[in-house]
Amino acid sequence: MTPIFRLLPGILLLVSGLLTACSSDQIEHIRNGKKIAIDLENMRVLRIMPADLLRATRWAGDSLTRHADRELRRVLTEKLRAGGVAVALPYCRPETFAAVDTLERVLEATARRQSARPRNAANQAPLTPAELQPDTARRVGRLNNEVFTYQRPIVLDDALCLRCHGEIGQDISSVDYALVKKQYPRDQATGYRLGQAMGVWHLTLQRTGVAEFYTMKNRKVMKPRKKLF
């Protein structure tokens, strides 16, 4: 028997031992391969283009204003049931809600409601008819390198709102409107109908907040695996 053949059993035994020693690590690596790939992908620095930032501005604006609208509807429903317009009137300011303020800080945004016929004179703005069309698309822009803007119409789409913003004497009782005038002597926000735009949401957003929101939206999340047993 040649020397190489005499060594062959020992070589095979050594290789077998190495494979056995590595098998558990190899199996573990395969199990976590997808998670590791996703983690590495999320750690990769994204190159965010100007068009991406404008897209993220729209996403962030939609997220904040829809959240504010949902909170307003929830709070007003609760307050109207509790005590009618007298109790609900001070709460028709969603931009001041704590939950909305928290989201503003996360997005580095400032939200305002503006109207050509406001209830609060501080919200007066010279809006064009085009801006007040209910089907007007969201408008996003960039004021400078650091600041973005977002705007969309505020549409009266809930009959609940007619109790304070509808026709006086028809939707709004004289008693309730007296309460409105007492708190807002220069009120102009009545006479609206369902489906009509009352004003706009106008947001300013910092570039850093917009970029972080874009990164978050594009971050991959590994779906949990179903248990086999």
Structure description:
With 229 residues, the protein is of the alpha+beta class. It has one domain (50-217). It contains six helices and four strands; from the N terminus they run αααβββααβα. It has a four-stranded antiparallel beta sheet. Mean pLDDT is 84; it is low at 36-45.
Q: What portion of residues belong to β-strands?
A: 5-15%
Overall 3D shape: elongated
Number of strands: 4
SSE string: HHHEEEHHEH
Overall pLDDT metric: 84
Helical fraction equals 40-55%
In quaternary terms, these chains amount to single chain
Distance between the termini: 53 Å
Radius of gyration: 30 Å
Within the largest sheet, what's the order of strands?
A: 1-4-3-2
Number of helices: 6
Low-pLDDT residue spans:
36-45
Based on secondary structure, the structural category is alpha+beta
**Tally of domains:** 1
Q: Main β-sheet: number of strands, strand sense, barrel status?
A: 4 strands, antiparallel
Could you list some keywords that capture this structure?
229 residues, alpha+beta, four-stranded antiparallel β-sheet, 4 strands
Brief summary of the model shown:
With 229 residues, the protein is of the alpha+beta class. Helix content is 50%, strand content 13%. Strands 1-4-3-2 form a four-stranded antiparallel β-sheet.
